[in-house]
Specification:
The protein has one helix spanning 10-46. By secondary structure, it is mostly helical.
Amino acid sequence: MSKKGKEKNTANKAKHSRLMKQKANKLKSEKLQRKERLKAIIKKANEPNNTINDN
């Protein structure tokens, strides 16, 4: 027989899954931002106008 009334821990499970999704999204966005910054640095370093003269 199924239980009657409100389900146990429904609010906690929903809160936990929401927080875990937030954490995953934060990590994903930080990783993407880091990748973009590195691409910009590499692009700037590879430009021909930014070469260092060895005089």
